[in-house]
Amino acid sequence: MTNPVSLRLSTFVAGTEGPWKIQEIRSLRGESLASAKKLSTGPAGSPAPALPAIWTLEGVTSNERYTTRQEKDELVAIQPELGRPESTCAALIPIRKNASWWAMTQDERHQIFAEKSHHTAIGMKYLPAVARKLYHCRDLAQPQPYDFITWFEFAPSESDSFDRLLAELRSQPEWSFVERETEIRLTRCAA
Ligand code: HEM
User: Fold this and answer.
1) Looking at the domain assignment, is residue 17 inside a domain?
2) How confident is residue 51, by pLDDT bands cut at 50, 70 and 90?
3) How many Å apart are CA 83 and CA 121, to the nearest integer?
4) What is the pLDDT of residues 151-173, one digit of tens each?
């Protein structure tokens, strides 16, 4: 097997140590997460977890479900890598969708995600200012509190623009299926 789950697993540990300072944790829907000072992220087991952990989230990178070939080519051409030095702001937004979403078939979900909500088209307007990564949580061995973990990095000058992106996406039909959403805003600690 070339790509086992263990190699695609990433961990987000909130505690007292880590390269990201947590500025704010707020719940958009459902139960929030406990407040913490710092966050460390990385492949499972590395970096060393920020002990004592106040909470830990885990997710795996996976294949795309909704992206067309044309969108993929466009994304590959413009989406930036994480870790740009000027991207000192980040957002960690774990999301859980409701039972109605998961009861639908893939073509029904695609219709809401793409044709009715224009998720990718909206998101692309904010590239390359925002770097992003999506993790899936549903198929891990242990039950997880969210279905997805989303991670974004951008420069401080792009904060207002990122807020507009959030408002635009959250006003779409796709978001009526979101039953838990927590927004964690962070800034990178000085080296
Ligand atoms: C920065 C601009 C963004 C772009 C270009 C973008 C693009 C995409 C794309 C292409 C997918 C589909 C992946 C697939 O084919 O499976 C996706 C999925 C997703 N995105 Fe975004 N996105 C952006 C911003 C956001 C934001 C700000 C949020 C959260 C507030 C978000 C939450 C999600 C979630 C939860 C999924 C998984 C949906 C599902 O599988 O049901 N995205 N995004």
Assistant:
1) no
2) low
3) 24
4) 999 999 999 999 999 999 999 99
